[in-house]
Design goal:
By secondary structure, the chain is α+β, with helices and mostly antiparallel strands. 43% of the residues lie in helices and 15% in strands. The chain has 4 domains: 122 residues, no CATH class; 157 residues, Nucleotidyltransferase, domain 5, CATH 3.30.420; 101 residues, no CATH class; 63 residues, no CATH class. Strands 1, 4, 5, 6, 7 and 8 form a 6-stranded mixed β-sheet that branches. Helix 8 runs antiparallel to helix 13, helix 12 packs across helix 13 and helix 14 packs parallel to helix 15.
């Protein structure tokens, strides 16, 4: 049954701070955990989580503000669950952060913590809403207002968040998935399919590979394909809701196909990047970038970047499969970012973010793109500039003349005076189409927007040209709590919990240091 946690607001005769000297109390008040209590714990809207609990039945829930703050602390300090619970029990500073007033207060049990995470994930799966992300948005909105930070200029970057999984080769994955399925089958099913499973499940996948001769790899994959087909046809009608069978079915279709009633092994080049990478993390995808292989998710962040701000805060964080382009991930966030920060009018990004769709959407929101690098080669030849007027007409200029463009069937056409072109010193380098009546330049609105991106970088105040660079330091902060880029969690939901918690933590750290330097 849902109830708010207000016990931290009540005075307690047995408050452990009464046993401290004034000096110790002052030291405790100066800890960052004391500010976490006031800036995070007290600001969490517990009513947002009411949907996870019954309105009338069951025992009252543990404090939501304590559970959420504990998750944030866990990621901030890189604790395991055991370390988190130890600090909650024995660390006075941690107790302060969670609003605990008695030395023997423990806000929740280990099982309650895991049940809460399970409920959060189930809610996210059913509704598409991650309640931890809502906490981040609410806290950040309040912090931006309280600190009077400008959000008109922002910057973005992403990083590969590697899943905490073992890297399998093809045979190893096929064997591991088969072993996992075999474990959960009933004795009756195991007996029925004993001859099919027997060659592959006697030992671990590692031992199987250890004894596998390189010359037999191809034939082993063919044999696995036949076994997969037999098992799939035998269990498909009865095990569709079993997680291990779902992974098995996905792997079967990833690696094999039926051609002329026979099992065909898909070539490595035919397999998509969203094939199952590990049964421990079905959400993990594969990407090869700059010669490196990545298995997991990608985390994208956006933060304020106005030089007038005394500090910058993360305003948006998103998690997506790592086989998606940064431009596509960012495209899905543009509307949300504008809604959260209505005065946003400038984005600083690298070459991975621009696209035709993004140019269009940013233009609708009145956001100017400052691109710090150009993807691909830059066209050489005569410089052509396009300017759009308020009445949506275009003027096109080259070094010698300026003309008004006219609409063609699917694009715009600018016709240049052949008399001027005839005496032009740039004629040999000119790449415009040359017809009898003169030279013609064809373009679309998307091409105009692309040219604007390049022009924006050239026209911007030189002092602002390096604004994007500092977002890489924020990415480094986020990755600091990983093990060489590998998360301590698995799955897209837990990756998002990590990303949102770390974004809250990083914002808090900046505010804490700001208040230390500028006491209220």
């Amino acid at each position: 049954m849902y109830r708010r946690n207000t016990s931290h607001l009540q005075e307690n005769l047995f408050d452990y701070t009464t046993l401290m000297t004034p000096s110790m109390q002052k030291q405790l008040e100066d800890t960052e955990e004391h500010l976490i209590y006031s800036l995070i714990f007290c600001k969490i809207n517990e009513d947002d989580f009411q949907c996870l609990f019954s309105a009338t039945d069951g025992r009252p829930n543990s404090g939501i503000n304590a559970l959420v703050t504990a998750i944030i602390l866990k990621h901030r300090y890189g604790w395991s669950v055991a370390q988190m619970l130890h600090n909650i029990t024995f660390n006075l500073a941690t107790k302060i952060a969670l609003g605990l007033r008695r030395i023997d207060d423990v806000p929740f049990s280990r099982q309650t913590y895991f049940n809460f995470q399970t409920a959060l994930e189930a809610h996210a799966s059913a509704t598409g809403i991650n309640l931890l992300t809502q906490v981040f948005d609410t806290l950040t909105s309040d912090q931006l207002k309280e600190l009077k930070l400008k959000t008109d200029i922002q910057r973005t970057d992403s990083f590969q968040a590697l899943s905490n999984i073992r890297t399998y080769n093809r045979v190893g994955l096929l064997i591991e998935v088969l072993i996992r399925l075999h474990r959960v089958l009933s004795d009756e099913d195991k007996k029925r399919l004993e001859d099919v499973f027997a060659p592959f499940v006697k030992d671990t996948a590692g031992h199987f590979l250890h004894h596998l001769a390189e010359s037999t790899i191809d034939s082993t994959i063919v044999a696995l394909g036949a076994a997969y087909r037999t098992i799939q046809e035998a269990l498909v009608g009865t095990h569709a809701d079993v997680k291990e069978f779902q992974n098995f079915t996905r792997t079967y279709h990833d690696h094999f196909e039926i051609v002329d009633a026979r099992v065909r092994v898909r070539a490595n080049g035919e397999m998509a990047s969203d094939t199952l990478q590990s049964p421990d993390d079905p959400d993990a995808t594969y990407r090869k970038k700059n010669g490196q292989q990545f298995h997991g998710q990608v985390v994208n962040i956006v933060e304020t970047a106005n030089p007038d701000n005394p500090l910058q805060l993360i305003t948006d964080v998103a998690v997506a499969p790592n086989n998606r382009d940064d431009s596509a991930v960012f495209n899905e966030r543009i509307d949300e970012i504008k809604a959260k920060t209505p005065d946003w009018n400038q984005i600083h990004e690298d070459a991975a973010y621009p696209s035709k769709d993004n140019d269009r959407k940013l233009e609708l929101h009145g956001v100017k793109t400052i691109q710090t690098a150009i993807r691909g080669s830059v066209a050489s030849g005569v410089l052509i500039e396009i300017v759009q007027s308020e009445d949506e007409q275009y003027t096109v200029s080259c070094p010698r003349q300026c003309v008004t463009a006219a609409p063609a069937k699917k694009r715009w056409k600018a016709e240049f005076d052949p008399a001027v072109c005839a005496g032009c010193e740039h004629a040999e380098k000119c790449q415009l189409f040359e017809y009898v009546r003169g030279r013609v330049y064809y373009f679309t609105h998307e091409e105009y927007l692309k040219k604007q991106r390049v022009k924006n970088m050239q026209d911007i105040d030189p002092a602002h040209r390096t604004l994007r660079a500092n977002v890489e330091a924020t990415v480094a902060e986020l990755k600091q709590k990983t093990r060489n880029g590998k998360l301590r969690v698995r799955g897209s939901f837990k990756t998002m919990v990590f990303a949102a918690s770390m974004a809250i933590s990083i914002n808090f750290g900046r505010i804490y240091r700001y208040y230390e330097a500028n006491p209220i």
